[in-house]
Design brief:
This protein is an alpha/beta fold. The protein contains 16 helices and 27 strands.
Length: about 625
């Protein structure tokens, strides 16, 4: 790498560190001490023949007694405050030589927090569950951040040693084994990476340089990274190398970039475009995917460089989540106040993607989004749950606790069958009732401010202002979030629902084409709407979602309900199948042509040749 400590093939370790703030920099490992040579631009380099893989070391700066961890440490056995360890990635024996990577078409993303995914909270324990995910239909894991952070528990977004997989989940090779095993089962793995701030505890970078961060831009979580100011080149290199490192040395299949709206860069080439370009090159021919979280859903992120874009693959679709959430819960406080959850709104989300494409956001008192009618469905990641949105309920409640079962089944059909890349949060596939709360374990001096900051953030929800929120630093808060896998056996009907819908999406030609053959939507009532998928051979499909009560009007002057000539609608799938916990299957169209759409339900229909019918 361009930074860090690298074991050499012939023995010994080479070091390269950017430390313009220092005059003298030495490596200490036990009784061994040697100085690195100063080079132009604040760089220090050197080779030590007496160090080897597994040795621990620290940097001694300008005669300070304290040993500092390597800014590009590959492993921190005792956490961010301890010594770094020499790691030789080439010693791991991969078995995924035939793995070609993946693209987003046909994928089902699964967001995972390793520390709560199993009771052990390790990569090894998580790898044992991988066959269950493969069996369900999961094809791409999105792993929440794993860069070393302070404390014994946390979400991972306060990482400070960006090249060191946290010791809390195991050894670096345990992470490699997890990914190797996933690839053997046909599952890709992308990493949630945080390039918008450093965590508030355990960050030793200011000892080496003051230029990693800047006050030029406001940042929600502290100081913004310096991507366009004085001495920004080594900072850009640090981030670019980090993105490539995860792809190259751990075989990750891409990245999910956290809160990209807080990454500021006025350079000719934005750092997001640069790291994306370099990460693809680091994959050496493997296909990788780069996904962004971006609150305004700025489509410049996914446009090609030829059109002034950054070349990413997809953006999280908060609009889809917020609209469905309001439809299911009936609550639209705080940032949900920009949504009504109506059938008109949901139909627009399916047909046009992002709902806000430059209109005024009442909640933000400003315009939100950019025109994106030309954006492909595969450039949007849709979801009903994710770590943030579950935790923002205050009590960490899942949708299974917030809405009626029939509507949740219908919403699951909407997520898994409509165009876009669907994503589940861990346990969602078996209706886990395990909460996901905000938890952390920063130093005691930060416990109070962090809890107060969380309280202030959630006070945007009037209903939560009088609620006693779980204390983020209380170990019990974390323990409550550990998945209870016995629910998977108890909720087998929900698991079957997900399996069938995932299989249907992949096996049905029109669904797998993501609406490219033609798609239209229509509202049937304030709470019911349809999606029609067009087929050149006349075998159109119809997905009807009804979040309201039974719908059986006397007349139905909606052209999209009419089947193609010579065909009739045949029922393919119903969310009311008793095997899913439904109340029973009923064909929505009677023989006399009268329609009946059950309340709190979804049906999927196919245009089949009618008796004696003909096409053409």
């Amino acid at each position: 790498m361009a930074v860090g400590a690298e074991a050499q093939n012939g023995g010994g370790v080479h070091f390269r560190v950017w430390a313009p703030k220092t005059r003298n920099l030495a490596v200490r490992s036990g009784a061994l001490s040697f100085s690195l040579g100063a080079e132009s631009g604040g760089w220090f380099c050197g080779f030590c023949a007496d160090l080897k893989t597994g040795d621990r070391y620290g940097f001694k700066i300008d005669g300070r007694e304290e040993l500092l961890p390597d800014p590009a440490s590959r492993f921190q056995p005792d956490g961010p405050h301890g010594l770094s360890e020499v790691v030789d990635a080439s010693e791991f024996k991969w078995t995924d030589q035939d793995w070609k990577g993946l693209r987003l078409n046909g994928q089902l993303i699964y967001e995972m927090h390793v520390g709560t995914f199993t009771s052990e909270g390790t990569w090894q324990a998580a790898s044992e569950k991988l066959p269950l995910l493969a069996e369900t239909g999961v094809s791409l894991i999105e792993m929440m951040p794993v860069a070393a952070f302070a404390g014994t528990r946390g979400w991972g977004y306060d990482g400070v040693c960006w090249f060191a997989p946290t010791q809390l989940y195991g050894l670096p090779d345990d992470l490699r084994r997890f990914i190797d095993r996933a690839h053997s089962l046909g599952i890709g793995v992308i990493l949630d990476a945080v390039y918008n701030h450093f965590g508030p505890e355990g960050d030793y970078l200011p000892f080496f340089s003051d230029s990693y961060t800047t006050d030029k831009y406001p940042n929600e979580w502290g100081r913004a990274l310096n991507f366009d100011g004085p001495d920004c080149a080594p900072v850009r290199e640090y981030v670019r190398e980090n993105a490539c490192y995860w792809i190259r040395e751990f075989h990750f299949d891409g990245l999910r970039l956290d809160a990209t709206q807080q990454i500021f860069d006025a350079s000719d080439e934005h750092i997001l475009a640069e790291l994306t370009r370099c990460a693809r090159a680091a994959a050496h021919g493997r296909d990788i995917v780069i996904v962004a979280e971006n609150e305004p859903q700025d489509t410049q992120l996914v446009r090609p460089s030829a059109k002034g874009g950054f070349g990413l693959d997809a953006i999280w679709n908060d609009d889809f989540h917020h609209s469905v959430h309001v439809a299911l819960t009936g609550r639209n406080e705080a940032y949900y106040s920009d949504y009504e959850g109506s059938s008109r709104e949901l139909a627009a989300a399916v047909k046009y993607g992002f709902l806000y494409q430059g209109q005024r956001s009442t909640w933000q008192s400003n315009r939100r989004g950019r025109p994106s009618l030309d954006i492909d469905a595969l450039q949007r990641v849709n979801f009903l749950e994710n770590h943030d949105q579950i935790a923002n309920s205050g009590a960490g409640q899942r949708l299974v606790s917030l809405t009626e079962p029939g509507n949740l089944r219908a919403a699951t059909a909407l997520l898994l069958l409509s165009p876009g890349v669907p994503m589940l949060f861990q346990g969602e596939e078996f209706a886990s009732e395990t909460p996901f709360l905000f938890f952390t374990d920063l130093g005691k001096d930060l416990a109070g401010p962090v809890a107060e900051g969380r309280r202030k953030f959630l006070s945007q929800f009037p209903s939560l202002r009088s609620v006693d929120l779980p204390a983020p630093h209380d170990p019990a808060t974390f323990e409550r979030c550990v998945l209870e896998w016995s629910e998977r056996d108890r909720h087998v009907h929900v698991l079957q629902l997900h399996r069938d819908l995932i299989g249907l999406k992949r096996s049905d030609r029109l669904l797998s084409e993501e609406g490219r053959g033609g798609l239209d939507t229509a509202t049937l009532s304030d709470q019911a709407f349809l999606i029609r998928f067009y087929d050149s051979a006349g075998e159109d499909r119809l997905l009807v979602i009804n979040f309201g009560s039974d719908l059986s009007p006397r007349v139905f002057p909606e052209p999209l309900l009419a089947p193609p000539e010579g065909r009739t609608w045949g029922l393919v799938w119903s969310s009311e199948d008793p095997s899913y916990g439904g109340g029973g299957i009923r064909s929505p169209e009677n023989e006399d042509g009268v329609w009946h759409f059950a309340g709190h339900a979804a049906v999927f229909l196919r245009a089949d040749l009618s008796a004696g019918g003909r096409v053409g």
